[in-house]
Specification:
Helix content: 55-70%
Number of strands: 4
Radius of gyration: 36 Å
Order of helices and strands: HHHHEEEEHHHHHH
Shape: elongated
Largest sheet: 4 strands, antiparallel
Keywords: Exonuclease, Hydrolase, Nuclease
GO molecular function: exonuclease activity
Strand order of the largest sheet: 1-2-3-4
Protein name: Exonuclease SbcC
Amino acid sequence: MENQEQQASAADVLTQAIANKLDYLSTLQAAVQHGNDRKVYELLDQVRYYQEVKKTRVKQTVNHLAELVDNIHPQISHYLSDNLIDYLGHIYPFFYYEEYTTGRFHIYFGNWWDRRLFGDLDVVNVQFMFDQTEYQKLQQSFELEGRHQRLNTAKIEAISSESEQLQKLMDAQSVRDNKKTELREQLKENSQKSGMPWETSKIKDERQGIIDQLTKLADEDEQALNAHKTIKANDDRILVLSKEDTILNYEKQSIRDAFDDFEHFEAHNQSLYTDYLNSLVGKGEGEVNVDD
């Protein structure tokens, strides 16, 4: 008798567990059918929804029912993306999105030539996943404005200085040639010297000094020989860095136009989930059972 009761109790528990899963899936299905994106987001992460949207703590333990749809997140993301991207288009008019595979989106900054791939959009979590290297360039560019500098100012100055030195080496070729002729004559004279024994060391030192000068001039000749190629490469590097600074200026102006400054831009990014879900309240909720 006791075993039968235990078996019946186990069956009841299992039946209820199955019913809970079916109820979760049917509620999610109804939310999708009625275009109730807010309800979909709530079902996907009830803890976060209640904490960040309702501003209350969840009364129950973490609901693992959302794990039932983990394997169809790409399809869910694809479905939710239309309304989210439409919303983002008004708040972040400078971001453009490309669905490179089902439910996964690249973020591009701007619609100008050579725009940057800026990261990914996580639709399910309503979150920007910025490329940290690109994001830090933008952040640093804002910080450097206070010093009237651009991101690549120091790099460009260093490269330009190198090119100037190389150009001077090229321009000084005739001066070096004359100096080498003079030093070779001195070397010839030195080799013909036959001083007293105590002067031998002095003669050797003079000879070594002349050789050192000739070696230095030979090194400069070699640098000058490759200088034109190096200067051309430096010009190409400066062009790339200047283009990057120009694009960063476009990006900064876009952020200022939309948010006034970088700090407000970051603040909006942090509250994006809450702001977006609040904007969905009342949309498509007519026939969906909501138990808020």
